[in-house]
RNA sequence: GCGGGUGUGGCGGAAUGGCAGACGCGAUGGCCUUAGGAGCCAUUGGGGAAACUCGUGGGGGUUCAAGUCCCCCCGCCCGCACCA
């Protein structure tokens, strides 16, 4: 009985679902995706008559599955591309894959080690790409698939190699010895992102070492100044991204000063150059510090009683992982080298230390230390009993900040003794120079320039600029990347491969079973001949960082099939720069900085004209969903780390918090399941509606259903009124629609233009699809409450409104809008139709609602003709009984009239 | 520590200095139904019977008028972090 009832319900439900709830999205979406493909509708138009517009999304790594973050990114881009096409631009909107990288190689290693089978990263990657392309197509994105590229194809990475060779010739690509992360178990270098808490990602017990290795670098520091300066012109970029880049480049103006080693040994270099931004404190230098990994640190200590202490210290500290060494609670420690130096301005002898807080990579790897006026130096001096020497005194108590005061209160009370006694911290603020030879009495802010000049005049230093930015290490001891086209010859050293021999193709005869770089196991790859002298030689087995691949793919899209050049100058000049780049803020520094750098290099090599690749940048927010959050771990935790609903580690209660969707937390939602359930249009619409595009998006299953309901309401309305609407279309074709013939039609016409105005400005000025969709929802409510009668005028009005609604929603929910447009009897694809023109007059109200306030409190609403003047409004307002009551006969002191909005009476 | 962002109903979020809470979700009541996880209608910030009143993280200020502008403080999020 129950079973029969259940079956009955099911059958019935299916029917009603079809009739009532869901429009046939599957059928419709499939139909239009096929049509777009058949007609190659989104092939980049290039008649040259219309302005170009380049929409680009950050291309994905082919993981094989599309996740919600992709969907959000690409839905924003697609809506923009479709909108701009309708606005009359020649839109170029390409897609491809950032296809080199570790996961494919790791899959091959895993297959080889665990199952003993061979897995080809190329085939593996290709399968993943095929799956993702299918998923992208199911979302209905309007890419020009003819421009598809994948960075792992030799026809793409060939150009990485060509550009590398040209950079090599100009010295922009070079080799140097550098400190890198090294895993002794893997027998290879690791990328920074592969080091987790100082351990290897593959061997969680293995501490990563720092090793000195010879690696390939790109000389991005040569471009530091330009990369910094041009940021000011990138007004189409979010301010916070520009700030991040500025900080990353980290320009600081200062001066190089040469200190000299006291009692130099025969043949020993006595120069000890330092960099400082505070030449005004030079008279206060009481010691110096050299970085432990500085090659001279141990050299100088040799033969002194300190030698063994220094050796012990360097061995311990120089090997430490950077994350350990620079942890925020890291105490400063160091050791005297047993040597002294001379302060060039005072002639004082000062001790020379090595210490963990001085970095080899910045400045000269050696510093002057002024404990009185630098907090770090102060801490170190206190710990090791080094003298403090005051050379700046505060101008007056008033000029000292509250924070600074807490450190130096006692010192001030003691009358500012020169040895800094009483100081709890350094005095780092501006003041008056003290004990500074001829500069005593000068304001320290002026002293900076004056002493720098003095030092320069005495030829012991000069003004310079330092950057935090370091050269880009591009070597990777990995298989799945672009081979670096270099050949090592015993006689000729590192020689570039001949350009006509490019690409240097990745060999397939490699073993993923062995340790180290699989490329080294190839029997065909390594041995070759020197391009210069013809002697037997060996190929470089390092591959390029995959950020190289993604530093110019937007240029290749302009001319993706070119076999002679990476891209033709004509194509580059036609399409570049990218007008709208869209992606996640996680790429704010690395990718965006590298791409800017690479573009400038290509310009200097004569490949491109443009110097900045991305005119406008939009960073979309993350997609978030609730996950258990442990207050003690202070982080979200995966569901399977819960025991009886409590955090397994702390046994404490968890709260639910919205955090970024991630596979590891298990709070993801699979887009393809949603496409199956509600269709791509519903998913697209929800993701655009749920929040402004730049902000975080809180996932809501009910929200998607809401979006789906809205689309269904449009569909049902049009299906129910199809004949009348088609009739309206015919009538409009016969004679123009004049909304003024009928009050209701005029109202609907006004709503139509209000919607056009709102949607257009929301999309084009602010990327606020959420409010654009809200406007469409309101518009639909207006349409459904409009009564279509048997007369011509209401049918025309309804048709105009409905057609406009479809056009406005076409960028966001394209499949259904296409279908419904066809149902109305329109033959052209909606994607090629012009965006509706906004008519401000039609959108204007004849009568407006004026709020009447007495002392800022609302007392009445008045419907007033829009063109009414203040006198008229005042008269009507004062005639209102509630207003009179509120005034209570008191004299009017003032009245403010905001046309068409408000009238405020002050008594 | 430094830099940036952010804080508005039960929830996501709207508001060129001018009616706070558009639009949606959820909830409540009703209609339609053999049925409802469909659809339609209505209500939905708090307090109050009502007139009214209180409400945009907290405290001051400017203004006829402040979520919005200025000053101080607090919470959360994201970068960077011994950069000499």
What can be said about this structure in brief?
By secondary structure, this protein is of the alpha+beta class. 38% of the residues lie in helices and 19% in strands.
Structure write-up:
This protein has 907 residues and is α+β, with helices and mostly antiparallel strands. Among the domains are: 161-219 and 471-547, no CATH class; 253-466, Isoleucyl-tRNA Synthetase, domain 2 (Alpha-Beta Complex); 623-660, no CATH class; 697-843, Isoleucyl-tRNA Synthetase, Domain 1 (Orthogonal Bundle), CATH 1.10.730.10; 847-906, Ubiquitin-like (UB roll), CATH 3.10.20. The protein is built from 29 helices and 37 strands. The strands form 11 sheets. Strands 10, 11, 12, 13, 14, 15 and 18 form a 7-stranded mixed beta sheet that branches. A 4-stranded parallel beta sheet has the order 2-1-26-27, covered by helices on one side. Helix 4 packs across helix 5 (121-138), helix 23 (743-766) packs parallel to helix 25 and helix 25 (792-809) runs antiparallel to helix 26. Residues 1-19 have low confidence and may be disordered. The structure holds one RNA strand of 84 nucleotides.
């Amino acid at each position: 009985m129950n079973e029969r009832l259940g079956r009955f319900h099911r059958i019935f439900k299916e029917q009603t679902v079809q009739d009532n709830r869901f429009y046939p999205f599957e059928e419709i979406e499939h139909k239009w995706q096929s049509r777009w493909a058949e007609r190659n509708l989104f092939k980049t138009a290039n008649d040259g008559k219309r302005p170009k517009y380049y929409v680009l999304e950050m291309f994905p790594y082919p993981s094989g599955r599309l996740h919600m973050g992709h969907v959000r990114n690409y839905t924003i881009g697609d809506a923009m591309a479709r909108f701009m096409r309708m606005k009359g631009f020649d839109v170029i909107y390409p897609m491809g894959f950032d296809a080199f990288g570790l996961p494919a190689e790791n899959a091959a290693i895993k297959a080889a080690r665990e199952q003993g089978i061979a897995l080809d990263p190329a085939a593996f990657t290709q399968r993943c790409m095929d799956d993702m392309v299918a998923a992208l197509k199911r979302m209905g994105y309007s890419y020009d698939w003819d421009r598809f590229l994948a960075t792992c194809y030799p026809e793409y990475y060939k150009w990485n190699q060509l550009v590398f060779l040209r950079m090599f010739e100009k010295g922009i690509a070079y080799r140097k010895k550098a400190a890198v992360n090294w895993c002794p178990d893997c027998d290879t270098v690791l990328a920074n992102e592969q080091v987790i808490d100082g351990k290897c990602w593959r061997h969680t017990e293995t501490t990563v070492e720092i090793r000195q290795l010879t690696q390939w670098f790109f000389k991005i520091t040569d471009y530091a100044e330009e990369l910094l300066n041009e940021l000011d012109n990138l007004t189409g970029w979010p301010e916070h991204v520009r700030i991040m880049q500025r900080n990353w480049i980290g320009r600081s103006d200062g001066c190089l000063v040469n200190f000299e080693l006291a009692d130099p040994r025969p043949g020993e270099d006595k120069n000890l150059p330092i960099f400082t931004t505070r030449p005004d404190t030079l008279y206060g230098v009481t010691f110096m510090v050299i970085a432990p990994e500085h090659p001279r640190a141990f050299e100088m200590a040799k033969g002194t009683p300190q030698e063994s202490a220094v050796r012990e210290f360097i061995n311990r500290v120089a090997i430490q992982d950077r994350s350990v060494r620079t942890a925020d609670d890291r105490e400063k420690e160091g050791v005297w080298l047993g040597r002294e130096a001379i302060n060039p301005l005072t002639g004082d002898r000062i001790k020379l230390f090595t210490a963990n807080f001085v970095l080899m990579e910045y400045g000269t790897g050696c510093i002057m230390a002024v404990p009185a006026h630098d907090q770090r130096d102060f801490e170190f001096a206190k710990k090791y009993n080094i003298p403090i020497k005051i050379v700046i005194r505060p101008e007056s108590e008033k000029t000292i900040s509250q924070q600074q005061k807490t450190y130096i209160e006692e010192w001030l009370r003691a009358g500012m003794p020169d040895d800094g006694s009483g100081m709890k911290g350094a005095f780092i603020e501006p003041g008056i120079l003290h004990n500074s030879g001829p500069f005593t009495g000068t304001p320290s802010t002026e002293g900076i320039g004056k002493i720098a000049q003095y030092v320069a005049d005495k030829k012991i230093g000069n003004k310079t600029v330092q950057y935090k930015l370091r050269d880009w290490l591009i070597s990777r001891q990995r298989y799945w990347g672009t081979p670096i086209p270099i050949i090592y010859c015993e006689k000729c050293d590192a020689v570039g491969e001949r350009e006509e021999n490019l690409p240097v193709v990745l060999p397939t005869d490699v073993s993923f079973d062995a340790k180290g770089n699989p490329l080294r196991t190839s029997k065909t790859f390594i041995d070759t001949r020197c391009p210069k002298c013809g002697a037997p030689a060996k190929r470089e087995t390092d591959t390029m960082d995959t950020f190289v691949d993604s530093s110019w793919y937007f240029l290749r899209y302009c001319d993706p099939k070119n076999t002679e050049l990476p891209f033709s100058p004509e194509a580059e000049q036609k399409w570049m720069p990218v007008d709208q780049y869209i992606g996640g803020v996680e790429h704010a520094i690395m990718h965006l900085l590298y791409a800017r750098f690479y573009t400038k290099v290509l310009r200097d090599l004569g490949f491109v004209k443009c110097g900045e690749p991305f005119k406008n940048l939009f960073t979309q927010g993350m997609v978030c969903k609730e996950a258990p959050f442990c207050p003690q771990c202070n982080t979200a935790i995966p569901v399977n780390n819960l025991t009886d609903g409590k955090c397994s580690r702390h046994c404490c209660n968890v709260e639910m918090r919205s955090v970024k969707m991630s596979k590891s937390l298990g709070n993801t939602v699979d887009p393809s399941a949603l496409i199956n359930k509600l269709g791509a249009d519903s998913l697209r619409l929800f993701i655009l509606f749920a929040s402004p595009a730049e902000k975080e998006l809180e996932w809501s299953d009910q929200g998607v259903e809401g979006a789906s309901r809205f689309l269904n309401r449009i569909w049902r309305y049009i299906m129910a009124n199809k004949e009348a609407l088609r009739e309206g279309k015919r009538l409009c074709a016969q004679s123009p629609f004049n909304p003024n013939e009928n009050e209701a039609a005029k109202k609907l016409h006004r709503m139509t233009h209000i919607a056009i105005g709102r949607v257009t400005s929301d999309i084009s000025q602010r990327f606020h699809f959420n409010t654009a969709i809200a406007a469409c929802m309101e518009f639909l409510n207006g349409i459904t409450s409009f009564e279509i009668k048997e007369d011509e005028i209401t049918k025309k009005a309804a048709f105009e409104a409905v057609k406009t609604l479809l056009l406005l929603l076409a960028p966001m929910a394209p499949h259904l809008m296409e279908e419904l447009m066809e149902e109305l009897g329109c033959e052209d694809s909606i994607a090629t139709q012009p965006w509706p023109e906004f008519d401000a007059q039609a959108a204007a109200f004849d009568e407006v609602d004026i709020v009447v306030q007495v002392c800022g409190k609302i007392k009445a609403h008045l419907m007033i003709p829009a063109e009414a003047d203040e006198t008229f409004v005042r008269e009507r307002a004062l005639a209102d009984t509630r207003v009179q009551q509120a005034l209570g006969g008191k004299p009017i002191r003032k009245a403010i009239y905001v046309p068409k909005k408000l009238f405020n009476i002050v008594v």
